[in-house]
Amino acid sequence: MQTPFIPPLASGLAQADALFTSWLQECADVPAVQALTPATKSGLLTVLQHILADTGDINVDHQDIWALLAGATSLQFGLATGEGHNRAVVVGQQLWAESTVLGEATLPAHRILLAIQSGMATELEMDELTYLLEYVVSQAGDQAEVVFGHGLNPALGESIQVMMLVSRQ
Q1: Carries keyword GTP-binding (predicted)?
Q2: What is the domain extent for residue 37?
């Protein structure tokens, strides 16, 4: 499947809507799409919007998301925020435990996309990034391709927020 055309200056919201609509149309017979409910559609669209709105230092774009969505027979997604001394541990565990799974969760992960934001008061540290990546990979499957982005969000203060997409085939 070819990446849908997205105007270069489109907002994160417009990009998310275009990707989501294209995925629904092109993958209508895929179990992950068939498992969507109004609540999971809304949740997935929210995660896509958050990911695409971040224009951080190292960001993921609509092509990264489309590469993940296009081949997915199963999809897992989530968003978690944490603060304090063990914020990466809290976020990693919350992200996995409270994520939504569409389709078969027992398949090994094919692609993992993480978009991480940290506040400017306490930026993401390398050991936190390492922990988050290793934790999600250990839960999803160690053969997956991993793409991640990081940006600063002043509104987060001392918190970190992580958005996750996991595809399975």
Answers
A1: yes
A2: 12-168
Indicate whether 81 pLDDT > 90.
yes
Give the helix ranges, DSSP H, for 27-86: 31-34, 38-53, 62-70
Tally of CB atoms within 10 A around 37: 10
* CATH number of the structural domain spanning residue 71: 3.30.1330.20
Q: Is residue 4 part of a domain?
A: no
Are 163 and 128 spatial neighbours (Cβ–Cβ below 8 Å)? no
Q: Is 41 helix (H, G, I), strand (E, B) or coil?
A: helix
> How far apart, in whole angstroms, are the C-alpha atoms of residue 11 and residue 77?
21
CA distance linking residue 98 with residue 108, whole number of Å: 18
CA–CA distance, 71 with 10 (Å, rounded to integer): 24
**Tens digits of per-residue pLDDT, 33-60?**
999 999 999 999 999 998 988 777 777 8
Q: For the chain, how many structural domains are there in total?
A: 1
Whether 7 is covered by a domain: the verdict is no
What value does the mean pLDDT take over residues 24-34? Answer: 90
